[in-house]
Amino acid sequence: MIGVELLDGAGQPVAAAGMADVRLACADAGLLITSTNNTIVLMPPLILSSTEADELVERLDTALHHLPEGVVPARSEPAAPVSVSAGVSAGVE
C-alpha cells in the first residue's frame, strides 16, 4: 500500500471537494484509487514489474498535472533505506 498526502497551494490538507477532483483525475488517467482525508491510497499488486511501476507513476503524474490550480503533493522525508540482503541472509547457514 502506498499513501500520497496532498496539500493545497497554502500547505493545508486538500479539502474533500479537492479530493473528489483527485479521484476523478486518477480515474481519467486509468488509475483506480481510494483516499482517506487528503491522502491518495494506491494498492498495486505485490508482484509488480518495473515497467508496471513506471506506468503507475506516469499515470499518477498525469492525473496530478490535470488537477485544479493550487492542489499539490506534500513533500515528505524519504524513508530510511532498508537492507534486504541483510534480512534475507540472517540465520541462513
Overall tally of domains? 1
Number of helical elements: 3
> Which strand order does the major sheet show?
2-3-1-4
CA radius of gyration: 16 Å
Assign an overall shape: globular
Terminal residue distance: 33 Å
Enumerate the spans where pLDDT stays under 50 for 5 or more consecutive residues.
Answer: 78-93
Order of helices and strands: EHEEHEH
What is the structural class?
alpha+beta
Number of strands: 4
- Overall pLDDT score: 77
Helix fraction by DSSP (H/I, runs of at least 4): 25-40%
**Binned strand content:** 15-25%
The largest β sheet comes out as: 4 strands, antiparallel
Task: Explain what the structure shows.
This protein has 93 residues and is of the alpha+beta class. The protein has one domain. The chain has three helices and four strands, in the order βαββαβα. A hairpin with a 2-residue loop joins strand 2 and strand 3. The protein is globular and about 35 Å long.
Keywords:
disordered C terminus, single chain, 93 residues, globular, alpha+beta, 4-stranded antiparallel beta sheet
Characterize this entry briefly:
It contains three helices and four strands; from the N terminus they run βαββαβα. With 93 residues, the protein is α+β, with helices and mostly antiparallel strands. α1 packs across α2 (50-65).
Secondary-structure map with pairings?
Elements: E1 2-8, H1 16-28, E2 34-36, E3 39-42, H2 50-65, E4 71-73, H3 84-89
Antiparallel strand pairs: 1-3, 1-4, 2-3
Helix pairs in contact: 1-2
